[in-house]
Amino acid sequence: MVSLQAITFDLDDTLWDNQGVMLKTEEGHYRWLLEALVAWRAKRQEAPLALGYEQGLADYLQRRQAWAQQVPERRGDFTWLRLRALEEQLEAHGLTRSAALLWAAAAMNEFHRLRVQVTPHPEAAGLLSTLAERYQLAAITNGNIHLKRQPLAAYFPVAIAAGELLAPKPDPKPFLTALERLNVVPQRAMHVGDSWQEDVVPAQQLGMHAVWIAQQGDQPLPARVHRIAHVKELPEVIQWLEKRH
Ligand SMILES: [Mg+2]
Known about the structure:
Four Helix Bundle (Hemerythrin (Met), subunit A); 8 helices; binds magnesium ion; magnesium; HAD-like_hydrolase; HAD-like_sf
């Protein structure tokens, strides 16, 4: 008898390593913005803005943090925070409001172009394609990667951007939303993710099975929680679970 009906996946650091891409995206879209602004101002015979890369990037981060404090319900909506911070920074450096809005949006386009350039683990596509024959699949992420443009999008008919729901994991809302769209009860679903706090704990508390991707971890695992070192080991856990039923 099949016990599981659905499997939900965290994305960043679960189906690909995220760190290198985040750094390239962070630096790349901001550098792109400053260079594009210099060219735009030169064409209009205007002096370059007094905005340098290092100091500008640090100021951009501070403004994001300030916005997250001012509007706490948006703290996990990273695209929104970045847009507000960039608009504010550009206006503070002399752009008109409308130019600031336009250039902030253009910079975020570049951000999303870079952000989706993740390289899934080589086993990921084959694994998802096999699982999709038997289980319903969903993605639940706190990150602001473009869910339709990410390289594994085709495997996730249901994809939840928790930050944009204003309820980043560990909030149970993105899990419940995914389960509702899949029409599955928590007991027949499994969540797979690398974060103990954001993936494992909320899924387990809802009654889902949870697979924690962690290289190490000696702590005793609560009921329904399994640990693997890499997502490629997932089929073994599923087989073991299915055999018990
Ligand atoms: Mg993750």
